[in-house]
Predict the 3D structure of the following.
Amino acid sequence: MGIRKKNKNPPILSHDFIIQNHADIVSCIALLFVVGLLFEVTSHVAGLFITVQHNVTISTNAAFPEGPEELAVNYFHHGPKDMATVFFYMLIAIIFHAVIQECLLDKINRKMHLSKIKHTKFDESGQLSAFYLLSCGWGTSILFSENLLSSPVNLWEGYPHTLMPFQMKFFYIWQLAYWFHALPELYFQKTKNEDVPRQLLYISLYLVHIGGAYVLK
């Protein structure tokens, strides 16, 4: 599942070995967390990374034909345990990055015969386009499910909103995980030194704005 086709076998744990096989290595690490859920001894620790943390159960009355009934609804707030969840989904983002690169972008590049500079720009744009399309669709579904389009006053009524539904919290977790994954990708993609400051700048801006929106929601 590596990003580049393996033309030679570099020494184990060398830079080239890690770069060529980073998706496989990360997949194994992520799999360890998933396997940890199967055992009672490790399930609590593994769940800390995989499942969304800081949930609060609120009882609410719902109207049914048989009469009103009390329902338990789960909401979430932010907290320090979120960093463990962000770390796990950062690993997932690295795997997705490699899949999109190898299964889609590399195939298009081979057909288009792009120069090395255009190849790099195309890869960066392709990865960001896939992420933005996913984020746009996901964000739109949240707007509809939470009635934020039909009742935009919900955005500021009762501020600060200390609790949020699962879908909204997981959206923030994924956004943070994606932009944190972009940091090791600078190494995995062998980003040129002159391009690193530019990419670090917009990665940092995204993390600051998304993290701030999440904490101050």
Q: What stands out?
A: The CA atoms of residues 105 and 126 lie 7 Å apart. Residues 82-112 form the longest helix (31 residues). The beta strands are 55-64, 67-76.
